[in-house]
């Protein structure tokens, strides 16, 4: 069956490859395309390859507490939580 739109593509790909389920362990040298927080979580550090650093835009703005159900779609290369849980979906097929 062909894929008709981006939402259908997302539903087809999200979670089909490997993912890391993390707590407070620092994750570095990663290639995540999405990070989902099933419970309220606190991000203490995050790095993303495709985040721009121009006036008014800084990846540090994501160093905050995010509510349950939040999903961040970025090419995340490193992330650390001080509380909560994150499901980190790999870009690569492993």
Give an overview of the whole structure.
This protein is mostly beta strands and 94 residues long. It has one domain (6-90). It has one helix and seven strands; from the N terminus they run H-E-E-E-E-E-E-E. The strands form two sheets. The chain has a four-stranded antiparallel β-sheet, with no helix packed on it. The longest helix is centred in the first third of the chain and has 8 residues, at 6-13.
Helix content: under 10%
User: What composes the largest sheet?
Assistant: 4 strands, antiparallel
For the terminal residues, how far apart are their CA atoms?
Answer: 24 Å
Q: Number of helix segments?
A: 1
The unreliable regions are none
Major β-sheet strand ordering: 1-7-2-5
Structural class: mainly beta
| Mean pLDDT, all residues | 84
Strand residue content: 35-45%
| Count of separate structural domains | 1
Number of strands: 7
| Rg, nearest Å | 14 Å
Which series of helices and strands comes N to C?
A: HEEEEEEE
Chain oligomer state: single chain
Features:
globular, four-stranded antiparallel β-sheet, 94 residues, mainly beta, three-stranded antiparallel β-sheet
Topology:
Elements: H1 6-13, E1 19-22, E2 32-37, E3 41-48, E4 65-66, E5 70-72, E6 76-83, E7 86-90
Antiparallel strand pairs: 1-7, 2-5, 2-7, 3-4, 3-6
């Amino acid at each position: 069956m062909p894929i008709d739109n981006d939402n259908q593509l997302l539903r087809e790909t999200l979670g089909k490859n490997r993912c890391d389920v993390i707590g407070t362990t620092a994750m570095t040298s990663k290639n995540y395309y999405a990070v989902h927080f099933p419970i309220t979580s606190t991000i203490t550090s995050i790095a993303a390859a495709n985040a721009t650093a121009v006036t008014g835009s800084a990846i540090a703005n994501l160093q905050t507490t995010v509510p349950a159900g939040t999903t961040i779609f970025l090419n995340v290369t490193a992330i650390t939580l001080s509380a909560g849980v994150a499901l980190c979906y790999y870009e690569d097929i492993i």
